């Protein structure tokens, strides 16, 4: 399991080693591909080495290129170091850089396109406008010039023609958030294109989002008995598990668990999901949020769900790649693929974008024991259940089903389980 990425306390070499390992294990770069750097307060640049296995890098492998040009370390710095240096010189506000060859973004780079980040709600805000750097020889000064030129224009994420992508951030956590979100957007567009036609949000829909948010009142003081603290750790474990398995990204994902009565605990707003700690989780009691924290923007909806549906004790809503292919297109997500999928999920309905705000009756009214999951257009999959692990299992089953449908699209028309077979499943497994 990853350690927490707290850039305020970790040495740059620890940050770089951890994030390159995270990227490699998520399948977003290869053994030899990609590089990461951080520039510190002295102007020293800590960068991944050249020619060393990305799957087994340690902090001792990270190279320091001093401000005076001298090198400290047992390896050579990355062959792409020149463009890292050029970016830092062009943009003093950039303190960390990630370059890699994630498959979806490489797909865009080889057809000379930039992904439209309006495919999901938060991506335009996280990624900002995307630059485009014409092809130059890898490792060359010319490549550094064209990339730095894009950063000088104000871009913090750049598609590299026939190469990959490079992103910068105010620190490494910020850069990773941008990198992961941009690749997720690209994958969502690609998979949505395989099952239908991608549907993009308008700028107005995205800009209007904050106007619909309603903050909970704040309690004077929160108490944390042992059963409450146990739930915090359950939530953190599930969130990190979801991130590791590609079911959640740093920039999006909410988990809540009923505590006592209609009181519950929920993930916060604006804390990267990879880095969530138990102390970040927010208690909501008697309709009021724990002081000093900002609960998920969907806290009001979760509160209403718990009050309306006594059988629901945990909620997850997140963006997982294959499910978002259906949420971001008109394609029907038909879970009548294998018996387990229908038994757990039954028929998953799709809610129009914009109806997920506040105490959304469109969502709350749809949920039931026979309808534990909903897709919200261009936003998320929402899954409910009893125990948190059960809810997470439902999420996994839904994503596996969606993946099977996306992959099957290239083979031929789906042949679902018949109505008669579904009725047999209902009689054998569904308790009314």
TrEMBL record:
SMART domains: Aldolase_II (SM01007). The keyword Chloroplast does not apply. Residues 14-190, 233-406 form the Class II aldolase/adducin N-terminal domain. GO terms for molecular function: aldehyde-lyase activity; metal ion binding. InterPro entries: Aldolase_class_II_sugar_metab (IPR050197), Aldolase_II/adducin_N (IPR001303), Aldolase_II/adducin_N_sf (IPR036409). GO terms for cellular component: cytosol. Keywords: Lyase, Metal-binding. SUPFAM superfamilies: AraD/HMP-PK domain-like. GO terms for biological process: pentose catabolic process. Pfam families: Aldolase_II. This is Class II aldolase/adducin family protein. It comes from Phnomibacter ginsenosidimutans.
């Amino acid at each position: 399991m990853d350690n927490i990425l707290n850039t305020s306390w970790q040495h740059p070499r620890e940050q770089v080693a951890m994030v390159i390992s995270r990227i490699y294990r998520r399948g977003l770069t290869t053994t030899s591909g990609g590089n990461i750097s951080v520039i510190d307060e002295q102007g020293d640049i800590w960068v991944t080495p050249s020619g060393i296995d990305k799957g087994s890098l340690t902090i001792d492998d990270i190279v320091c290129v001093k401000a005076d040009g001298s090198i400290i370390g047992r390896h050579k710095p990355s062959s792409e170091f020149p463009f890292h240096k050029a970016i830092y010189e062009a943009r003093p506000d950039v303190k960390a850089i990630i370059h890699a060859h994630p498959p979806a973004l490489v797909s865009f780079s080889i057809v000379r396109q930039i992904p439209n980040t309006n495919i999901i709600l938060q991506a335009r805000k996280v990624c900002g406008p995307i630059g485009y750097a014409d092809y130059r020889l890898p490792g060359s000064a010319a490549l550094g010039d064209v990339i730095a030129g894009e950063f000088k224009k104000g871009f913090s994420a750049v598609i590299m023609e026939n190469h990959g992508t490079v992103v910068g951030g105010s620190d490494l956590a910020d850069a990773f958030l941008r990198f992961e979100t941009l690749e997720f957007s690209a994958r969502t567009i690609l998979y949505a294109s395989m099952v239908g036609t991608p549907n993009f949000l308008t700028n107005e829909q995205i800009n209007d989002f904050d106007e619909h948010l309603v903050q909970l009142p704040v309690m004077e003081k929160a108490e944390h008995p042992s059963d409450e603290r146990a739930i915090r750790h359950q939530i953190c474990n599930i969130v990190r598990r979801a991130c590791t398995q590609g079911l959640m990204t740093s920039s999006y994902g909410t988990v809540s668990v009923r505590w006592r009565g209609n009181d519950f605990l929920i993930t916060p707003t604006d804390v990267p999901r990879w880095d969530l700690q138990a102390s970040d989780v927010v208690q909501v009691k008697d309709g009021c949020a724990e002081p000093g924290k900002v609960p998920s923007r969907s806290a009001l909806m979760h509160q209403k769900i718990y009050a309306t549906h006594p059988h629901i004790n945990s909620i997850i809503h997140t963006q997982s790649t294959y499910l978002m292919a259906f949420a971001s297109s008109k394609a029907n997500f038909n879970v009548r693929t294998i018996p387990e999928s229908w038994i757990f999920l039954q028929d998953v309905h799709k809610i129009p974008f914009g109806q997920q705000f506040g105490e959304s009756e469109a969502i709350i009214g749809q949920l039931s024991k026979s309808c534990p999951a909903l897709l919200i257009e261009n936003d998320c999959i929402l899954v409910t259940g009893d125990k948190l692990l059960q809810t997470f299992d439902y999420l996994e089953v839904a994503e596996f089903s969606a993946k099977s449908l996306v992959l099957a699209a290239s083979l031929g028309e789906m042949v679902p389980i018949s109505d008669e077979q579904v009725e047999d499943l209902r009689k054998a497994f569904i308790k009314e």
